[in-house]
């Protein structure tokens, strides 16, 4: 997932999540507990910043390419004073706008608002790097101290009445209707950022709104710490005789986990997904599988001090009360009003159209697994703790895909060349490495490329790549921009970045990665291309829409399997031969493996999330609600929700994905449908005309147009769910448009 960089309330509304941790595309951030920089403690020892010395984190960016971040001047001692000063400056800038005696206009209010906060923005670039790429215990102390101050800062902006009044005046003015459509959209986004966060309220309602927010923040935190407690407090220790079926890598990890818990010589299965999932996939010990499964899926639901059910009821009530103050019927309606789906009904319609095929596929999968169990003489019927285990046996029997063999054709360097090739064909971009030392970097591993338009030779921006894992770097892969494109105040060149955690190989030898990792590499590059291709005038128009913002990056993954990439870049690291056809065929065939399980466990969670936020929360018992809803849906008994309600952190640890878990599938429908537009075109995935439409309507436009309209401009119609059904190998049923 992408970090937003616009210096506006759109960022303000999402800020807590962004600053706390850059959201990953699919993985939970985890941070190493050890400092990665020896200088950190020395820096902390001398906290005092010499009086009068200019803070480099606040300074304008110097050097080529319209100025670049001074990553070589980044020191921890500057962080707190820079943040404080940056916040003060932005508040002062906003006060100037708010107190302008002239009547509010687009120029003196909206444009001025877009200009405010530049200094703080630059500080956040460094802050983001220190948090995600170079974290340390010393930095996390600073983070902890600054989090409430940042939160108070954002509240001050939303509660600036005079400022909001002026924005509202422009938003409601007659003259707005004659402005350019992107300007109208900009005004709407800024207005909505304030209004949907309570700025329209007055008097008691406003006080109550703030009270609820404060109360919710506490409950969200309590919710996640309860889940964490259940993850940490339940550990299953095994002896050597109980390891049957587990691969060497799982055994090693379990031995290490036991050692860390003072039980050397034993093997620990911890209560986390990364421990549970492989154990249930491989362990031959059925009773232990059941135990691990029960412990994992009962997190937050043990009727003890860490039980989350009462918290969920309170959270739902407070959310409902809060949106009622704003005039909405229910929380989901409020939440989706500025999403591409717009209404909960439309999101529900999408999910309900896929659900029957998903559970029908589960039936088939269970039948395949049952057949294997019967042939083995296991004398069981498939239960939820058997699903992964027997699915693995089916996978081996049916697909025979050796992931190690695939790896031999996936060289990190070649894949990067492949991405540049794709960017050249679709976007007309040319990447060339900048001379070493010409652009400051924050670690020797980081490399920088300049991006130019192939035809005009004009500079588009820079692309920073930080590929390798290291201590202090969060896990997973992500993309962000240090500076977004805008033209309203002089052209700003894009500074985009991709970050991943590949394991550095032996010097001189190619780094080989897995198929999943190669897809993720392309995915993140899709985010970078989305940023680099931006043509918007105002910074806020680079912001994302949650159920839309993963679409562009998901789509780019599809070019990994195009013939041009296969023939020229997926080549064996020793022989240079392209990946054989039969191996490609196996990869394609395995793509729909276990899709019944995956889609059903996901949809069950997404449906419960949305339904919980559309239901009157008075007297709602979360456990009973979950049970009854799943029963009405006809949830197969052989599996459970991916995230059961009592530990559904996406939804109850904060509001990032509350009533929004459906968004993953929403974006995937667009992805499947857009991919078909290419597949059907005369030039296939490199069709010039479709590529031009892609860049114009789906990439460079960013958030300057309603995503639904933008998609229609690309496709000539709305996206169809059937495309997703075909991708997942489901039978195509009734037509549902989005
Ligand atoms: Zn992403």
Description:
This protein has 738 residues and is of the alpha+beta class. Helices cover 53% and strands 6% of the residues. It is built from 29 helices and seven strands. It has a five-stranded mixed beta sheet. A two-stranded antiparallel sheet has the order 1-2. Strand 4 and strand 5 form a beta hairpin. Helix 1 runs antiparallel to helix 6. The longest helix has 32 residues, at 344-375. It starts with 8 loop residues before the first helix and ends in an 11-residue tail after the last helix. Residues 1, 25, 523, 527, 550, 553 line the site of zinc ion.
> Which band does the percent of strand residues land in?
5-15%
In which order are the strands of the major sheet placed?
3-4-5-7-6
Fraction of residues in helices?
40-55%
Q: Name the assembly state.
A: single chain
Number of helices: 29
Give a quick rundown of the structure.
With 738 residues, the protein is an alpha+beta fold. 53% of the residues lie in helices and 6% in strands. It starts with 8 loop residues before the first helix and ends in an 11-residue tail after the last helix.
């Amino acid at each position: 997932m992408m970090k937003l960089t616009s210096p506006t309330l759109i960022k303000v509304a999402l800020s807590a999540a962004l600053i706390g941790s850059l959201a990953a595309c699919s993985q939970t951030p985890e941070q190493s507990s050890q400092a990665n920089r020896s200088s950190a403690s020395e820096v902390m020892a001398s906290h005092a910043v010499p009086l009068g010395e200019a803070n480099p984190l606040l300074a304008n960016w110097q050097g080529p390419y319209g100025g670049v971040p001074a990553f070589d001047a980044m020191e921890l001692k500057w962080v707190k004073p820079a943040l404080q000063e940056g916040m003060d400056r932005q508040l002062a800038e906003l006060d100037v706008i708010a107190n302008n005696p002239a009547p509010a206009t687009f120029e003196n209010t909206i444009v001025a608002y877009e200009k405010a906060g530049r200094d703080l923005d630059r500080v956040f670039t460094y802050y983001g790097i220190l948090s995600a790429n170079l974290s340390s215990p010393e930095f996390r102390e600073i983070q902890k101290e600054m989090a409430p101050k940042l939160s108070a800062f954002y509240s001050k902006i939303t509660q600036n009445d005079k400022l909001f009044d002026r924005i509202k005046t422009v938003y409601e003015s007659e003259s707005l209707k004659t402005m350019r459509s992107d300007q109208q959209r900009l005004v709407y986004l800024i207005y909505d950022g304030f209004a949907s966060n309570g700025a329209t309220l007055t008097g008691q309602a406003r006080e109550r709104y703030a009270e609820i927010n404060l109360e919710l923040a506490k409950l969200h935190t309590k919710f996640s710490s309860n889940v964490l407690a259940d993850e940490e407090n339940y550990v299953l220790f095994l002896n050597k005789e109980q390891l049957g079926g587990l691969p060497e890598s799982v055994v090693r990890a379990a031995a290490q986990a036991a050692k860390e818990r003072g039980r050397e010589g034993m093997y620990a299965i911890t209560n986390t997904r990364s421990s549970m999932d492989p154990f249930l996939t491989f362990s031959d010990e059925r009773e232990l599988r059941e135990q691990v499964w029960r412990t994992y899926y009962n997190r937050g639901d043990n009727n003890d001090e860490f039980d989350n059910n009462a918290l969920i009821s309170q959270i739902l009530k407070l959310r409902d009360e809060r949106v009622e103050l704003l005039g909405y019927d229910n929380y989901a309606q409020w939440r989706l009003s500025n999403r591409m789906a717009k209404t909960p009904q439309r999101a529900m319609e999408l999910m309900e159209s896929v659900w029957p095929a998903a559970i029908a596929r589960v039936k088939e999968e269970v039948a395949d697994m049952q057949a294997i169990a019967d042939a083995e003489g296991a004398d069981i019927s498939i239960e939820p703790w058997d699903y992964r285990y027997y699915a693995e046996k089916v996978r081996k029997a049916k697909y025979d895909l050796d992931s190690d063999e695939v790896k031999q054709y996936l060289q990190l360097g070649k894949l990067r060349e492949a991405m540049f090739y794709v960017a050249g064909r679709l976007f007309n971009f040319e990447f060339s490495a900048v001379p070493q030392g010409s652009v400051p970097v924050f670690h020797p591993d980081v490399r920088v490329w300049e991006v130019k338009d192939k035809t005009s030779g004009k500079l588009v921006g820079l692309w920073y790549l930080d590929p390798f894992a290291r201590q202090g770097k969060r896990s997973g892969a992500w993309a962000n921009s240090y500076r977004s494109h805008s033209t309203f105040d002089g052209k700003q060149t894009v500074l985009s970045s991709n970050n991943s955690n590949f394991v550095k190989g032996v010097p001189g030898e190619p780094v080989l990665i897995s198929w999943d990792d190669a897809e993720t590499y392309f995915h993140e590059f899709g985010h970078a291309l989305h940023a680099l291709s931006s043509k918007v005038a105002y910074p806020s128009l680079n912001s994302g829409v949650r159920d839309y913002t993963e679409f562009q990056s998901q789509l780019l993954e599809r070019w990994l399997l195009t013939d041009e990439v296969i023939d020229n870049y997926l080549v064996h690291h020793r022989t240079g031969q392209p990946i054989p056809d039969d191996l490609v065929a196996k990869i394609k065939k395995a793509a729909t493996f276990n899709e019944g399980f995956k889609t059903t466990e996901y949809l069950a969670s997404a449906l419960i999330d949305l339904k919980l936020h559309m239901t009157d929360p008075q007297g709602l018992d979360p456990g009973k609600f979950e049970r009854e809803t799943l029963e009405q849906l006809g949830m197969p008994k052989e599996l459970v929700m991916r995230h059961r309600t009592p530990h559904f952190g996406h939804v109850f640890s904060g509001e990032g994905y509350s009533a929004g878990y459906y968004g993953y599938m929403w974006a995937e429908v667009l992805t499947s449908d857009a991919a078909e537009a290419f597949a059907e075109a005369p030039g296939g995935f490199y069709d010039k005309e479709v590529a031009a439409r892609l860049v114009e309507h789906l990439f460079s436009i960013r958030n300057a147009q309603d995503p639904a309209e933008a998609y229609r401009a690309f496709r000539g119609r709305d996206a169809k769910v059937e495309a997703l059904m075909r991708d997942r190998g489901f039978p195509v049923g009734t037509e549902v448009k989005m």
